[in-house]
TrEMBL record, chains A, B, C, D:
Protein's name according to its UniProt entry: Amidophosphoribosyltransferase
Organism listed in the record: Hungatella effluvii
Underlying gene: purF
Keyword terms, alphabetized: 4Fe-4S, Glutamine amidotransferase, Glycosyltransferase, Iron, Iron-sulfur, Magnesium, Metal-binding, Purine biosynthesis, Transferase
Function (record text): Catalyzes the formation of phosphoribosylamine from phosphoribosylpyrophosphate (PRPP) and glutamine.
Catalytic class of the enzyme: transferase
KW Protein biosynthesis (keyword) present: no
Lineage: Bacteria, Bacillati, Bacillota, Clostridia, Lachnospirales
Length: 480, 480, 480, 480
């Protein structure tokens, strides 16, 4: 779907995690279903993955876990999956910035604490993690990873001493941690899901037979043949036990307009077959394409998307403009994570190896090329170039998002401002740099339409942060 | 692009090889370029791959080779590629039937013979290989593999004793071997390419700076930034030396109409960005789609392709019918060769894990679903089913090839007749079995149009074999 | 030297760790020297190993670590070692009981705490670890491993808040932890070594050029070409900084006779070329053999040791008795950790595969066979059997240790009492069970002689524990 | 036992193969027994190994084989062994010179020929292999490996066309191949063993229940619990079928004194627990030590062997001289094939890492150090040096073989003459170079005594070759 295979933003932007929890009341093993679920979330993180399971009928605190660097099908073998017995479990796929890409940081985090064992998987970035770390260290805490999950785990553990249940401890912890997080916590007899009050990251509930699922994206429910129950609300804590699902909404904002879903989930991160808080990712992209066609029309013969994430908006543009939609590119889907990149000096380029143009489709045509973002601009320039080489008469670039101008503190790995092509440049200057005949970005106002009115976070485009950003740059070492 | 990732024929049909030879007169190392070239051919064989190189300025017969089971990026590491010094080389990707899937059978075949060393890569299946093997054995030959390449190698070696050059020996061997083959032979100072007189399998010539390339598909030339020179003609032997390209066409058919290109290269095997003998694969598929629209029209709201190989014909159908083209499926591109298949009993199905439907795109619509073939029919039935589940009102299936009815002896791994859904069934019966509202196949007459008049082999559809098929079934153990 | 390759106690008894720290004031990289040092300690632990390094001139708290399951030469590659830059480092080899044999538990433990980073390697078992864990959990601690090292690390971290230096924090922690431990702690600018007041486990100081070493056994100093400086005293904390070695002996026993070195280090665990607290392991074994010859003489033609650890005592027995020493066994040194054990039903036995008898050496002879221990007795019976098969006329077994009768709580993995052959049996009964003509054990009084008067722990033989054993059996899950 | 782990000749000399064939008439699977047998032969070759099996009740010519680079326990897993079904099989361990150390060259060689399938394992070096290769190539043969086995296989295949049985074909082939070979050939229903007329390499027959074994060394029979039947005679062909063992001695020398067993098998290559042609390797070494004591006496306090292969002769020297035998060295048995060698510049030396001296054993003593050979002399110098460092007052070196002066063409990888320390130097000069107080070699006359009168090859010492050596140096590329 993206990232390593993607020629567009995926080369330059990274989502940071996907979580998948499952609790089977019929006591079937959940590990292999979690494995298939993580497959459906693989686009959210390709660096490491892990599964931790437990048996709710077994001895309290006996957890079986396996984590490793790489994709799901590299880390897990049939033997490993078969060894992971248990009817409750949590899985995780992870991407991280280079510095902290180690096995120690792979999730789920499994730990012993006062009440037995806890496994924890989360997606997002805390804004106050460094402060919380320092505070914990002053009270004698030791940290064996550099992931936020460990900070969250400590808070749950400390709250647990004072509270009557693990879900209360999670609530207590949530009062202290600030930032973006969707969380799945497995305790010996309960599975808890929580989403930060802003709702930055998605999390939803599914059901299959007598089992409940908590998962980052609804597409994974289709994959495993489960039905979608509902989204976890921003600020909500759901506790899944034998007795059903309990909901704690005390931490939800009274004023729902303070919520701030990451709009980039709709634009790029999520799979098009996912639906978040009632809004289809596919529809959002079609809408963005339609909006671009209305706002930035141009006469042309063909609309094409840069695969894969540009295709949805391209289809929308074509629908609105009545200019035929077509396929211009062939992507080599064998070019994966472990692909040997050509050296600078070599005649081959990574772009050419991953992407080829269908000359017959574009030769002699005026082409509208839709992409979801321009980050540094180098890839866009290369793609415009190979379209022209293949005989395209004109290349008009339309981007289904506004220009990136500001850092994200909530989990998206956007490069620093000086590396962003849009930083300090006009649209025309960018257009010249990438060699296009014309260039337009989606207007910011259109983002809200795209999300069908849901309150969203547009900080990376607008600079308007829903939470005060930290004074020191917390991205990097401690980014999870 | 296909095969392991593909929900359609790729699950059931397999191409059997791709070859890539390169000779750099400027004495640069060719191994890493061959590696990138094999990437572009990976869809032709995912089971094993290998590269053999030599230095034309070095000691005669010193060949460095590395072969292994798996994809290019699994078999080759930077260290291995850097260790493969030489300015002439040949690479191979291979698929084989289960029985003979061993490292011994990986290509290229490297051997010492009377005139030093030979490395040989080939694509295709000989019809008379078992006879030739037996004959050779009677004269004291030993066989260490079960691939046809070893039979070809023996004939070249034996001819070489009687002839003045390796290209003459190749010509001599070609007089004895019968069947489908595209061949690249590396001798210490020459690179030779040959194609059987029927031209079953493609082979073309490329050039980059001062280096020549022989490759199965032209798309690999784009990948490495080389230009297309021309196709090797059916029956032609080209000999590449310092002095340029020599051509020997003595074995070409006088009567060109006897040529018999495998039409399935256009329908399914090849990448759409390849061009064979002047016909673009992309164009051929568009034409097939247009023909289907003309021959088998139906009222509908949406035309969709089963990814990836159905997309071209879907676009053609949409162009001709004016029914909007759209995307109905999201394919999980992380599901690769080493993916753990769900057990029969599990709730997850391989189809659901690989393919999801965009409900928003198809719900309430009459959908025309284009695929390139129906082999056993099970996958088609599953896909029709998930479209209906997602709310499609009608599902009309159009297949961009005629029904499979006969075995192939020339390198395509078609299952035996009793497993072919079309064997002994009417189209309506098949339509019922896969649960579609209507079903049409491409008419056989359309195939020639698709290939723009080139003589083609349609034996698997028509039963008209360009060569008398062998009496015993040679598919299986000795299939290469 | 032993363990997996050893036919005697090594099959049944296991040491639990070896540590190696190094600090080079000349700023050379220490990782590869630590690697060679761990090789020399490999007999102390074959299950996992790890190295953590830091640069004392670099940013505080930047630690590079690599840990893995397996032997040193399985875990480390040249690439990995070259990537471990730093002039201060600590390494560890580990054996553990089955339950907690996971990568998470591999050492050194690397962690962030209030004062930056700490890497910690230790050898031994705490008696009060479970109590300390529970206490820490009540104050909100989380545990990610089941090793005692994490308990020690927490105490150091908590003490560090109250104290002025890391060595004071170690001293503070040592007041709380009770049991057997030899410890190497690496902080950003210091390397600290500590040994519990009983001195159960060895630890010594070495020097090479301008670098200091802390290591479990002196043999590793020979291996890396370093000189032996002195042993760390029981109860002593040594702090190595640029300014040299500081010693803190406040925790040493006033009454040195309370010290309790593990006598099994001399009998079996340690390499014969090591010297602990002034006593040579080789000499101790020679003495044990001599004592056996004096206490339990028998007429015979040949004295042989069960390789490798029985050889020293066999030589001593021969010296004292003047009965010729010889070699009776050929050990297959290729039978390592990953060797596939024969199935119960197969005709091959693990003993025969590892050990063969030199028929020519023993046929027709009365043989005295010296071994270091009998645990379950099964291996001894097999070895006596193959000696007889090879033609030995008589087999007299002499054991260079008293019979095992009691559990060890300080780090030696002795099976539970009901599995010990000596439990509830007379020497004559054991003799009959293993099929020997006569059997004698070393007398307990001889142990002190063997250790040349050093205060030793003989609890596993005598039941006299230097520390009150815990009420619950702490061996198992939390054993480190 | 040796080679990678050995500090003596093993660092510099290499045996080149071990073979193990088994045929179970009770139709039990033989693969795992072959595996254990190869373990016992591992000292004969650590570079690659392989097993090929077949079912004599199954379809003719169905062979299952697995080969790989590395030690037996690295190449084979339980899964692989379990997959190798068949009641007849042949295994091989191999060492080779650097140039041809590839997987292609691993044995057994498995091939199809006129009569079905053949698996072939052999030990030794043909003197006329290059000539035979050339001859075969002129008749159109192709070679896929550089091992002599392929030449032998061709001859068997060609003879088979003309003869009535595979054993006749082997006999026919043996008339053409000249040199050293012990051969095991598996055909669909027969197992054939053959030994060249000179008997350079050992081969013996064993039996277990209803199964026959053909193996390089008798020690492997002990390992698998089989009994020794007899040696295959030099020049004999034994054919094992359901009907028992048939013997063909037509190719044996009439004049038995022409036989030429490799004396180095007794001195160094073989395991001491093996017996060849009635002579015990252990006894031969004891005899060599005794002879040294008689011929080259010296006053001293201690006799020690350089482990492992020097120990036997050291024991013999001690017996004869009445000077006490002792242990001076501790060898690190964890230092295996994949051990990372210290760089030239590093402070650690490979010798120190592998070998340490027991200071307590040698300090202040006059030591006689027995080794089996001196090749280049560098290792000997290092070992003498560390003995002196450890306080030995005198070091007298006695070598249980004469000095190496000539190349071996029959399978022992002796370096070229200019690298042999004995080439062009007097014993006193060598003594000075290695820093010993005195040095003596075994006298050539003693070799025959050592072999108890058996005709032996002493060409590497005497230059008297039993076969005319080839004119061109055939060692290297084609050495097997």
């Amino acid at each position: 779907m993206r990232h390593d295979l993607n020629m567009t933003a995926g080369d330059e932007l990274h989502e940071e995690c996907g979580v998948f929890g499952m609790y089977d009341f019929d006591h079937g093993d959940v590990a292999s279903t979690i494995y298939y679920g993580l497959f459906a979330l693989q686009h959210r993180g390709q660096e490491s993955c892990g599964i931790a399971v437990s048996d709710t009928a077994g001895p309290k605190g006996k957890v079986n876990a396996y984590k490793g660097m790489g994709l799901c099908n590299e880390v897990f073998t049939p033997e490993i999956l078969e060894g992971l017995h248990g009817n409750i479990g949590v899985g995780h796929v992870r991407y991280s910035t280079a510095g902290s890409s180690t096995r120690e940081n792979a999730q789920p985090l499994v730990l012993n604490y006062i009440k037995g064992t806890l496994a924890l998987a989360h997606n997002g970035n805390l804004v106050n993690a460094p402060d919380l770390r320092r505070e914990l260290e002053y009270s004698g805490a030791i940290f064996q990873t550099t992931i936020d999950s460990e900070v969250i785990a400590y808070h749950i553990a400390r709250e647990r001493v004072k509270t009557s249940s693990v879900e209360e401890a999670v609530a207590g912890a949530m009062k202290k941690i600030v930032g973006a997080y969707s969380l799945v916590v497995m305790s010996p007899r309960k599975m808890i899901g929580a989403r930060d009050p802003f709702g930055f990251k998605p999390l939803c509930i599914g059901k299959r037979d007598n089992a409940y699922i908590l998962v980052s994206e609804s597409c994974a429910l289709d994959t495993i043949g489960a039905e979608f129950v509902r989204d976890v609300k921003p600020g909500e804590i759901v506790t899944i036990t034998k007795d059903g699902i309990a909901s704690d909404t005390r931490l939800c904002f009274q004023d729902r307009s303070r919520e701030a879903r990451c709009v980039f989930e709709y634009i790029y991160f999520a799979r098009p077959d996912s639906v978040f808080d009632g809004v289809s990712v596919y529809q959002a992209r079609i809408l963005a394409g339609r909006a671009l066609a209305v706002d930035s029309p141009v006469e042309a013969d063909l609309v094409v998307g840069v695969p894969e994430s540009g295709n949805g908006a391209a289809l929308g543009y074509s629908m609105e403009s009545q200019i035929p939609y077509g396929t211009a590119f062939v992507k080599n889907s064998y070019v994966g994570r472990t692909f040997i990149k050509p050296k600078q000096s070599s005649r081959e380029s990574a772009v050419r190896i991953k992407l080829n143009v269908l000359k017959e489709a574009v030769a002699g045509k005026r082409v509208i090329m839709i992409d979801d973002s321009i980050v540094r601009g180098t890839t866009s320039a290369l793609i415009v170039g190979i379209l022209r080489e293949a005989g395209a008469k004109e290349v008009h670039v339309r981007i289904s998002a506004p220009p990136f101008l500001h850092p994200c503190y909530f989990g998206t790995d956007i490069p620093s401002e000086d590396q962003l092509i849009a930083h300090g440049r006009t649209v025309q200057e960018i257009c010249d740099m990438i060699g296009a005949d014309s260039l337009s970005f989606l207007r910011q106002e259109r983002l809200t339409e795209m999300a069908q009115g849901l309150p969203i976070c547009t900080a990376c485009f607008s600079g308007e942060y829903p939470i005060q950003p930290p004074e020191e740059d917390i991205r990097g070492e401690y980014a999870q």
